[in-house]
Amino acid sequence: MVASSKVFTHSEVSAHNTSQDCWLIINAKVYDVTSFLNDHPGGDEVLLGAAGKDASEEFEDVGHGSAARLMLDEFYVGEMDPSIKSKVEIVDATLGESKKPKDKLPQSISSKFIYIAVALMIIVFGVGIHFLNKIA
Question: What confidence score (pLDDT) does residue 2 get?
Answer without folding.
Answer: 43
